[in-house]
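Q: What structure does this chain adopt?
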Amino acid sequence: MIRRFFPRRLVGVAIPVLVVAALAGCGKKEGGPGGAPGGGGGGGFTPPPTPVEVAKAEVGPLSDRFETVGSLDATERITVVSEIDGAIQSLPFQEGAEVARGTLLAKLDDRERRADLARAEAVRDQRKTAWERVKRVVEQNAGAPQDLDDAAAALAVAEADVVVARTRLDKTRIVAPFDGMVGPRAVSPGAFARAGQEIAELARVSEIEVHFSMPERYAGRLHRGERVTVSTPAFPNEKVEGTVEVVDPIVDRNTRNLGVIAKVPNTQRHLRPGMSANVAVDLSTREAAITVPAEAVFAQGDQFLVYVVQDDGTVMTRPLQLGVRLADKVEVREGLTAGETVVRAGHQKLYPGAKVMPITSQPGGAPGAGGPGAGGPGGEAGGDAGGPAAGTDGGDAPAASEGGSA
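A:
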């Protein structure tokens, strides 16, 4: 028992002694003459460059775009109704189909109206004959001019009655007033329709109106004729371009928004009134705008800054004056020139003068091959894996070993 116990105690005492000796030896080696361990002596430890994802300041066309959600509506839409009372004889249209202007949509019983027209025409012909007879008598000085005036007035009344009768007869034929798409029937053949009763809905869908609102701050920049791009949740990959037709001259006092109406073509008839729509309005376009990725810009107080990579591999902060801000990039009005390299991701650990190891971002946002870590979008994960944090983990490895021995 004594033989087995002593070696274990000696091992337990020897391990801490060896660890202390090894650390003391490393400190002397790294410190150098007159230098503190890892300190600022001539042979002191220099941290490795921090891996960062970088991007170039690019020049290209940039549109100042306002995006919102609106609603679609038909450019022309009516409820087809009967103007007179009458029994419906037929509804010769196909529900949901497109009809041309003048297409017969409903026909009412017209027998009574035709009889009224025939009677009015007969009275007109009689009054015309009487007027001609009185006219010949007056011309022969055998009659009073008053008789001719009375006959002419009676003829005019009879002709007006003919017009009224013909108009009433025409109202028994209900036709489409414009090209459009007709909806479902609201009545059936044989039903008695009252004046004003709905027959069907008719909407012009060859061109669609887009109704949306914009904040009042755009009032001075939005004008009739501005270009808009429209897409819908039903057809997200189809983008249709149109123009602004109406800008409401009155700002809503509750929302402080302007009402806007744009028109877009609907050649494929995919857009339907009542749909929601994603609307983008191009307020202005600059052909030579300098842009950087949006994630490269950070705020410090009331300033916007970027880290610019210098020729010696260090970074310096640069204040910027920004312009248009989009989801993926921002316009730089002042502070950068085209072609300068900025830190896109990993700048949380940087400071002015820090050494960096640039990693050019690849399409899709991932760092280039061989970069530290398999960074995801933005590349920050990769930068963190290979930066000073990784070195710190390595320095803490002895502590992990001690934990394992314990």
